[in-house]
Design a protein that fits this description.
alpha/beta
Length: 398
């Protein structure tokens, strides 16, 4: 499915203004069946449990927030009518100013806020006269990121910052989901003739460095260090997810990369938890990274809860397998990305079964996604009201 939300930014701007005056918040979604327990940051892990600053055992029960990870580092432009979305966007710019209120009043306690390296650093770094790396951080994006973080946390919602990639970079396209990918900057690939596979391998295996002795991973880590420094001491941000859904490449030392990045982030913000995401294939991360305060996460998009299809396993099979892995590592287990599944007419029994299983097995989760970038989003694309039957299914899993 192609995402067309960015094709009509002028209309979106008008909708934003109207919705600011009359947002469908608590009235639209009704009183929550359950309220997810509030998370008081910072958090720390204790075996497979997450403990907050108040000493309470808590679960991450939330949603993904989309828009800030998109584009080519350009700020929102209501006059851009290109079918390619060249810009990142706040919830307000997506026509969804009610996002913060909906998240809180639906009872969710966490938002997984997706950002990207390209949004943070739209221009290639330079070197000064002494050979020191000089970054030109995107101050307009950072200002907007401050706003989004502050709005969610002001509403009592904890934040997980995730450095997102989807199809690696806006340089690459996926017609099944979005007009373009997101994540890695264009300037890593000056001739723009590289394949997605080659681009991923350049990053994984330290090929095509940005400068001699300064690899693409070094640049990515500097982006994380900047974010960690900018939000230093902000305990309402409870975790950093190093990279979304890393692609699988034989020989990529993903464990070692996670350890390097996690230690660097925690040297700046020692109280942040570190989320390590499963590779596309299990063999990409067979051993536990040596990190403190670590949470293990996966994505899941099954055809059904009890039934698989073709070579796709059932939801129960996939989750139980990775749950066993997290328990063997003695760390919390987190499903950071899943959508409505099981078919249009029978999603409720399928997802209700998943919610019961997660509740029974102390599994953390964030639904993808809040804003209407997919048909399965919690806010509808056409009229920006909430999908109440889906929200109620999720609420039953608190």
């Amino acid at each position: 499915m192609k995402n067309r939300i960015f094709q009509f930014p002028a209309i979106a701007l008008i909708v934003t203004i109207l919705l600011t005056a009359a947002s469908p918040t608590a009235e639209a979604i009704g009183k929550p069946i359950h309220q997810a327990p509030h998370i008081t940051g910072p958090v720390h892990t204790s075996g497979t449990d997450i403990i907050d600053a108040a000493g309470n055992k808590v679960r991450i029960l939330g949603v993904n927030s989309s828009g800030m990870e998109r584009g080519e580092g350009n700020e929102w432009n209501a006059k851009d009518v290109s079918p390619d979305h060249h810009f990142w966007a706040t919830p307000e710019e997506l026509g969804c100013p009610q996002s913060y209120d909906v998240t809180a009043k639906a009872g969710f306690n966490t938002v997984r806020l997706n950002i990207s390296w390209f949004s943070l650093e739209r221009n290639k770094p330079t070197k000064d006269a002494k050979g020191k790396i000089v970054h030109d951080w995107n101050t307009k994006f950072i200002t907007s990121l401050d706003h989004v973080v502050n709005e969610y946390t002001k509403h009592g919602v904890a934040v997980i910052l995730c450095m997102y990639q989807w199809h690696w970079s806006p340089l690459f396209r996926d017609p099944d989901y979005f007009e373009h990918g997101s994540g890695m900057p264009f300037w890593l690939y000056p001739d723009k003739k590289v394949s997605q596979k080659d681009a991923e391998e350049q990053f994984a295996f330290d090929k095509n460095p940005i400068f001699d002795g300064y690899t693409q991973q070094d640049g990515f880590l500097d982006a994380w260090k900047m974010v960690a420094t900018h939000f230093k001491g902000n305990n309402k941000i409870i975790a950093a997810e190093i990279i979304n859904e890393p692609p699988h490449h034989d020989g990529w030392k993903l464990k070692e990369m996670y350890e390097r990045f996690g230690h660097a982030i925690q040297s700046i913000n020692p109280k942040w938890a570190i989320v390590v995401d499963q590779c596309h294939k299990e063999e990409g991360l067979p051993k536990k990274p040596n990190l403190s305060n670590m949470i293990y996460s996966i994505h899941i998009h099954p055809p059904g809860w009890d039934k698989g299809k073709d070579d796709r396993p059932s939801g129960k099979e996939s989750i139980s397998k990775e749950l066993a892995k997290s328990r063997s590592w003695n760390v919390p287990f987190y499903i950071n990305d899943f959508t409505k599944f099981g078919g249009k007419d029978d999603f409720e029994p399928n997802m209700s079964a998943m919610m019961r299983y997660c509740k029974q097995n102390n599994i953390n989760w964030t639904y993808f996604t809040l804003q209407p970038v997919r048909k399965t989003s919690l806010i509808k694309k056409d009229n920006k009201t909430t999908v109440d039957d889906l929200i109620k299914v999720l609420q039953a899993g608190f």
